[in-house]
Amino acid sequence: MTNSPTRNMIRIRLTIMAFSILGLVLASLNSAITRFAIVLRDRARLGITEPDNAILAHSFQQLMERVLGDVLIAALASALSAIAGLVLLVYSRRLRENSNLQIYFGFMQLILSLVILVTGAYLADHVHGCQSSFTVLQGDDRIPYHSIMYFGGVGEAVYGALVILIGAGYFGLSLAFGS
């Protein structure tokens, strides 16, 4: 079976579509974590007035502000990557005319993966030790804020690492075998 240009273009478009969908999923996860960070930060602000939890509430408020900044960066990067992928899918003629766009999209995905790896690891690392604070400030909600934030950060870090490893492996194999 030979690789025709049409078959290669279909593979490229399917790959771009998969990364665009993953970018939208990551942007959705990060926007949910952003919302949770805002809710918990505001609850911590209300808890500062209580003398029993003032120190805990203040440190938790600062943690949620750092998490909020971290997750906003990841959400914006994921959304921009998904939008760029969708634009390439809609204007597929540009992909056929300019083969460098494929390479640029691949490098953009590697950079996004590095950002997602760093922000996910940062989120998981900083949220991991604060489970008791989450329990205190969670209130009567049934939403497991700590689990969503922690495992969301771990999942993002794993996703970023896998994409970087796959990209590096593909680059290494293409150098080794010259295809």
Automatic annotation (TrEMBL):
The chain crosses the membrane at residues 71-91, 103-124, 157-177. Keywords: Membrane, Transmembrane, Transmembrane helix. It comes from the Eukaryota. This is Uncharacterized protein.
